[in-house]
Amino acid sequence: MRLTYAPGKKNKIHISIDGEYRFTVDVDFWFSQCIYQDTEISEAELTALEDEVATRRAFNKGMDFLSRRAHSKKELVEKISKTSEKKYAIIAVDMLEERGYVDDADFAAQYYDYLQRTKHFGKKRIAAELSRKGIDRALIAQLLESDEADPQAEIIALLEGKFAGRFGDEKGKQRTVNALLRLGYNYSDIRSAFYSCDEASLE
After folding, report:
1. What local confidence, expressed as pLDDT, does residue 185 receive?
2. How much is the CA Rg of the chain, to the nearest whole Å?
3. If you classify domain 54-102 with CATH, what class do you get?
4. Where are the domains of the chain?
5. Is the per-residue pLDDT at 202 higher than 80?
6. What is the DSSP-derived secondary structure letter of residue 119?
7. Is the dihedral of CA 97, 100, 102, 106 positive or negative?
8. Residue 201 predicted with pLDDT over 50
9. Which pLDDT score, from 0 to 100, does residue 114 have?
10. How far is Cα 16 from Cα 24, in angstroms, rounded to an integer?
11. Model-level pTM?
């Protein structure tokens, strides 16, 4: 098989095999391969090259996602896999991790803080969200153990802020309790917080 290439728009190179278009790559990647015009290439060499091209695309896609915000490994693999084969997504994310662009421990700490401070989630909900992102259970347990926040104080702040005036009757009270349970707070902490706010007993 004979490989030829031609320049395209925006620093792209179009690759053809025996005169038929095969795939497109970026200029930097192509010339790093040191493949000359009208090169004879075997099926195995072509397959290896296509694997490199697919990995490169997945890697670039990962960098694009990371330029917007931090991601966990699992989350990034899932996003890249929407436009690339999963095997290439996994290789690309491993490369990104090796280069320090992906760090589950750092991501988990940042995401934990975001969910607690911005979303006002309790520990149960935070643990579930971190697990959904693919964070290791041991790491989640470590973060939960190091969290010194007082859940009752957090609930009281919500009762006096977001939920203020919503629990004047039994129906409103139950809706507020259910909302707090969905946020990941324990029933016992919710009940104690209501008592602290001098609200009627939840019994």
Report:
1. 96
2. 26
3. mainly alpha
4. 1-41, 54-102, 104-146, 151-196
5. no
6. S
7. positive
8. no
9. 96
10. 9
11. 0.81
